[in-house]
Amino acid sequence: MSLPPPMAVDDNAPEARLGAPADGASALELTDAGGLAKTPMWRIRWRLFRRSIGTMWALFSENRLGMFGLGLILLFAVMAISHPILMATVWDPGVYDPVNGYDAVVTEYTVVEEITDPLTEIDLQTARLRLNPTIKPGAVVSIPTQPAPPTISGENPHYLGTDAQGRDILSQLLYSTRSAFFLGAVAAFTTVFIATAVGAIAAYFGGWIDGGLMRFADLILLMPLLPVLIVLSAVFEMTMVLLGLIIGVLSGFGGVAIVLKSQALAVTVKSYVDAARVAGGSDWHVIFRHIIPNVLPLSFLFMMFGVTDAIAIESTLSFFGLLNVPMTWGIMINSAQNNGYLLSGTSFWWLLFPAGLAVSFLCFAFFLVGRGMDEVINPRLRAR
Amino acid sequence: MFKFLLGRLVQMAILFVVFLSLVWLLLQAMPGDISDTLVGNPSIPLSVRLELRESLGLSQPLHIQYLTYITNFFRGELGVSFSRYPQDVSAILWTALPRTLVLFLSATLLAFWLGFKTGKLIAWGRGAGSEKGLIVTGIFLQTVFYPWFAIVMLWTFGFFFGWFPIGRFIDARLWQGSPFNANEIFGQMIVSVIIATVIYVIGRYLIKRYARDIVTQTRLGQGLAAICVGALVLFWWLHPAAVYVADIAHHTMLPVMTLGLVAFGATMLLTRSAMLETLGEDYILTARAKGLPDRVIRDHHAARNAMLPVTTSLVLALAFVIGGGIVTETIFSWPGMGLIFLQAINVSDIPLAVGALSITGVLALFGHLLADILYAVLDPRIRVA
Amino acid sequence: MTLSLEKLKARQIDPTRPLLEVDRLVMRYHIKAGQVSAVEDVSFTVHEGEAVGLVGESGCGKTSVALSLLRLLPSNAEYVSGEIRLDGEDLLSLNTDEMRQRRWKEIAMVFQGAMNSWNPVYRVGDQIRETLDTHYRGVMSYTEQRQHMERLFSAVGLPPAMLDRYPHEFSGGMRQRAVIAMALGCSPRLIIADEPTTALDVIVQDQILKELKRIQADLGMSIIYISHDIAVIAEVTDSLGVMYAGKLVEYGPTGTVFARPRHPYAYLLLRSTPSISGPRRQLAPLEGEPPDLLDPPTGCRFHPRCPFATEQCVTEEPPLEEIGGGHRVACWNHEDVPELEGALQR
Fold this sequence. Notes:
The complex is a heterotrimer of chains A (384), B (385) and C (346). Chain A has 384 residues and is mainly alpha-helical. Helix content of chain A is 63%, strand content 4%. Chain A has 15 helices and three strands. The longest helix of chain A is centred in the middle third of the chain and has 37 residues, at 169-205. Chain A starts with 13 loop residues before the first helix and ends in a 7-residue tail after the last helix. By secondary structure, chain B is mostly helical. Chain B contains 15 helices and no strands. Chain B has helices spanning 2-29, 34-40, 46-55, 62-75, 89-124, 129-143, 146-160, 172-175, 182-210, 214-238, 242-279, 282-289, 294-331, 337-346, 350-378. In chain B, helix 2 runs antiparallel to helix 3 (46-55), helix 5 (89-124) runs parallel beside helix 15 (350-378) and helix 13 (294-331) runs antiparallel to helix 15 (350-378). Chain C is of the alpha/beta class and 346 residues long. Chain C contains ten helices and twelve strands. In chain C, helix 4 (142-155) crosses helix 5 (172-184). Classes of the chains: A mainly alpha (384), B mainly alpha (385), C alpha/beta (346). Chains in contact: A-B, B-C. Chains A and B meet through helix 8, helix 9, helix 13, helix 14 and helix 15 of A and helix 1, helix 6, helix 7, helix 11 and helix 13 of B.
């Protein structure tokens, strides 16, 4: 499906008077007897734009998985927003700060000869070493321990427990949501921006520009992203912004550009492009007014998958400890690993599961939305 | 066909040189130059450091260095590792490469075979109850956070159920005092599998030429597969190193399964959409009109065409598998190239890291080339182009 | 030439014997919005050796009827009532396996846009051999199959060497001929040709039609031609049926229907065809559009567009009635339909 070109910037330009292909509106409605538009062009275009968005939304909302994904994204958005609010109101920064907070959660342990449950028992040796050499089995002692299991009550409840350094897990989780969205947005937007530009230019100009760009895209496609990023992060101090930009640039010149170029090509051969050029539109004008708006739905689709990829890569890099960022989900798992809790399984589940599930579900959500959009944009996939 | 291959090979070679050059540029971009790192590394005696500096040609002008670097690479000289001094980078990678390849290939083949079969069946029986569930599972597998997933897999099957060892390549205690060398045994295992595969492929080709119709072909093909696998298992069962071979195999299973599961999700979803699109084609209607049995239509006509877009995606999957391989090796402590690469980065062992990166590039290139060849074999229309 | 392999049937034709009887067939599609009445109470008979034509606009149901004969409709199609009898046996009552055995062997089909009937990844010869393997399992040896296919190709005017080529190596017209060859492969008694010449240029069109006619006569096959192009149909058929909005509105010997169409729709259709030899007249195109089959008009489905419509047409559906000489019409006011000026000569 194709979108009409976007709102006119200059209504007096000759192209505006020639008019865009008006989907769904008959010429008779819009013009008076002399053939001059009686409603301003931009308003017509806006109406048509809203109409097509409306149709797309109607189609999208039929897809249950897609709507579920959208709901999940909104949930995460709420999580992201809630963190600064909570920090400003209910939470004491000294305790709940995701990076620097500390809470000495005191847990009661029973002294035993042999430990069967590390969460409630402490063995004789350690107790004697740490506390009182004369202590006997059966005694109950209170020790500040990290990482602490979730607590619901008390002065400073930790709904998801604390990590090995006494920091609240829930706070970390919510705080990292923001960086995830941020990174996803930067990377996805950069990817699509570059890929759309490359695709449109390659399709429109053809010849050796096309050939060169596509060869380059082949090269990029060849390079596996993760190892390259690993090396780059060893060379440069990687912040979120830099990482997002690098991911965006590296992905943007690759496979996405190839696909968008085919789409742009389909538009380039349409007759209204020729018409616009004959009317005196410059190359760039044609590219921006005609080709790019028709490629945009597909670009938007790739943005969704771009977010998924970016978050996954960032989390993996954080997990390896290669990023210079204060706190992300990947770092949460990384710190669990550094403190030896990686294979703790169900005993210290709050160290691994919240972060791991958060990454998985956010990627899952964006992927579902992307799939839903795919069905809207690519009508062949729709179920009867 | 031959011209096509040649053209692709030349393209690949050029791309690879460009890739190598970019890697070299990256090397230069690193803070300080190689000699600083060299000189700074305390574990290398000074005399050797100075010698290395000379032999590395660091006093030469930049473009000479570049040329030397490229030619050295193609000669197989990748330098000396810092962290594992005095081992050659090439020697280290040469041992590690087969392990990584086994991981990649097994996982990819498993994922594609299983994913293709499942996707094909789902698309054919559209609307079955299990379809929605399988789709969601597939999506989940594709988007799950892989390091976390690998950890969970390791813990669940290695620790909790205890069915598999907790990472690593071999059980060191088992091999203590054994007359066999783990790398050699591993190499032999690989060779035996390759032989079995070659026999199978030749057998399939002969079947295709001489068997009468599709039904006979399928039956004979399945029989051949059973024979090849059976012979392989029997051979190693009776071999004196049987218990060691089993140990290696046992250690290999969980990492392969983990990596394979995630790739499976993606393949299954892709096959399903490719099949759905193929099923709408006219020749499928014709096949039905011809009175062909359902299975023939589904497998021989539809699935065969659905394979084409799936093969194209093999190239993209490659990038994932390589990245996923690094994570898998890290978490399962599987001593392949990915693990070595990461360790090298962490200790700034530049020659080793760069060497590993270059070999990865070669792998990616070959994978790309293989996928192209496979596509040309599958789609006769391409061969003309 | 004759295909006279001993293992295949040799044909004795009795032109009065009915081969295929479509008896009050009703078929509907189930879609989200409701039920589409695609085929309503259609009845006609194809005799041995006869060529029958079905004409009508796109969406009138002619392809649905054709696909019904082979039971190739998608899963959301339902056969509400009626029978399709081949040699007296109701095809709609067979189970999947039995029907599968009859496909291609008894009834074969050449699809619209036959170029896409070929699977691009297999050789043309292999795709033809598939049908022989399926329907003549164990009966023909590999060499016999090869000889048979080569003769098929010669019959349609294609070089036998092309059997080893891929579909993309054939031109459009060649692919069409190859499809016809494939359809003939199992010596079916009835061939359905759905728009066999659309998308081909006029010269090739002519050749193909002549081929089909010759083959039909040689092999004693019956053919059902489906087309929206009346001129094409007129040349090659013995009987002609006109369909509109899922209903068969007129049926009879081609010459009769052509010379004196009695249904308003058929009349307007034929009037809108310019004639080179007849007198000059105003072209009178049909106004309006075909009805929505989700909610078809009451009574006669053509009444909204019919210049001869009366009160009765809005409320009662006219049955298909015989008006003499095998000519049947479904119209209350068929006698009001005037003579065609400068009737088209066949």
